[in-house]
Structure formats: structure tokens, C-alpha cells
Write a structure and sequence with these properties.
The protein is mainly beta and 224 residues long. The chain contains one helix and twelve strands.
Length: 224
């Protein structure tokens, strides 16, 4: 339906439940998940849709570390939005990966999040070469973030834009339907192009589609 502001928006309320699995391999490249050097960091950015209230969050992590690291002085630090959520030991098997499940405090999660990894690695109690290639940790791209909670009914309020049409944590192939009552005038086409450009800038580099209808409003939300 057309997006109309209300005099006084009602608060969002629980509507249904949701479960979501976010794969780290879809958020970054395998090369970025390889930490090389004694004090190397990398962070992965991910979004949660604004209509989702997370109640349970688990990080199912699979990782490997270089053989020969001093276990008492080496570890992998995991952070969420700059807060340390775990300090993991180096793996004892140089071939097999280590699997662990970390329960993340749900109240740390926001719309935009950063999951960080820091390798603290030492191979000698004496002087070390910071460029030594024998110090590394690899985060398996099959590692996942598993979320569950409640889905909220969003308020009908223009202040919520770009919702309900676009949410960075929502559909990976978003579509924003645009409706013309009749054959559009040049001014109407210009207005539609401005709106499409704004949504395109918000979604970049994600592709966004703009299906067009004449005289008919499709199901769901549309811009008329």
C-alpha cells in the first residue's frame, strides 16, 4: 500500500518469530579471514534487519592456528562491536580445525555490527620476527552467526524511511515497486528517478530492482 504518515506512530510490537543464519564466507573473502602476524586483526561487518529483535545469538566458529605457537602466550580474541566476547586457545592439531560455539550477549547486537578477530601469536620466548610467516590463524568461511528472536511489526511512519522498502539487514536482492497511476509525465519520471537514485545509493554495492506498474498497485509495499 502507499506509505502514509500517521498523526502519532504506534510503538513497534512483536509480530512473529524468526531464525537467521549468517555465513561468514558471504560477508568477506577467505583471504581476509587468514590472519598473518603476531598481532593481526580483521573485522567483518554484518547487518540485522530493523524489524528483528534478537533474543539468542550463537557464533559457530571453526578455526585453525599455526603449529608451534606457544599455547600459554598465544590465543585468538573474538570481539563484537568492540566488546570482547571470547578468548580462544590456539588449536593443538595443526591439520584439523577447532570447532566452538560461542553464545553472544544479544544486547550487544545492533542494526550494524562488527565481528572482530585478533590473533595474539608467539612462537618464541626470545626475540621474535614480526614478519615471521609461521604465525597465522585461519577462520573457516563456513563459520556462521545464528540468530533467533521476534519479528516486529514496523510503524507506518515516514521517519522510518528507507523502511519498509529497503533494509541493509534484509533481502539480499531487494525490490522497490514504483507505481504510476497512468502513463507518467516527464516530471513524474524525474521524481521516480530521484527516488530510485536515493535507494540505489543506500543499497550500493548491492543491486536493487525497481519493478514498475501502471494503474495497478502490487501486493505489499509500493511507492506511488
Amino acid at each position: 500500500s502507499a506509505f502514509r504518515p500517521l498523526r502519532k506512530p504506534a510503538p513497534a510490537r512483536p509480530s512473529s518469530d524468526f531464525a537467521q543464519v549468517i555465513n561468514l564466507g558471504e560477508l568477506t573473502t577467505p583471504a581476509d579471514l587468514m590472519l598473518r602476524g603476531p598481532d593481526t586483526t580483521h573485522s567483518v561487518r554484518f547487518f540485522i534487519a530493523r524489524d528483528r529483535l534478537v533474543r539468542v545469538a550463537d557464533l559457530k566458529l571453526r578455526y585453525r592456528t599455526a603449529p608451534g605457537l606457544i599455547a600459554a602466550a598465544s590465543h585468538l580474541v573474538v570481539t563484537l562491536n568492540v566488546t570482547v566476547v571470547a578468548t580462544l586457545p590456539v588449536s593443538t592439531n595443526p591439520v584439523a580445525s577447532t570447532d566452538t560455539t560461542l553464545t553472544v550477549p544479544a544486547d550487544l547486537l545492533k542494526h550494524e555490527n562488527r565481528l572482530g578477530f585478533e590473533l595474539i601469536g608467539h612462537y618464541s620466548a626470545q626475540c621474535e620476527d614480526p614478519a615471521n610467516a609461521s604465525v597465522w590463524a585461519q577462520i573457516d568461511p563456513t563459520s556462521t552467526i545464528e540468530l533467533s528472536g521476534s519479528r516486529l511489526s514496523m510503524t507506518n511512519d515516514l521517519a522510518s524511511l528507507p523502511l519498509p522498502f529497503y533494509d541493509a539487514g534484509g533481502n539480499k536482492r531487494p525490490a522497490v515497486p514504483i507505481v504510476f497511476a497512468a502513463t507518467p509525465s516527464p516530471e513524474a519520471l524525474q521524481a521516480a528517478a530521484i527516488i530510485a537514485s536515493w535507494f540505489g545509493a543506500l543499497a550500493a554495492p548491492r543491486q536493487i530492482r525497481f519493478p514498475v506498474s501502471l494503474g495497478t498497485i502490487p501486493a505489499g509495499n509500493a511507492i506511488v
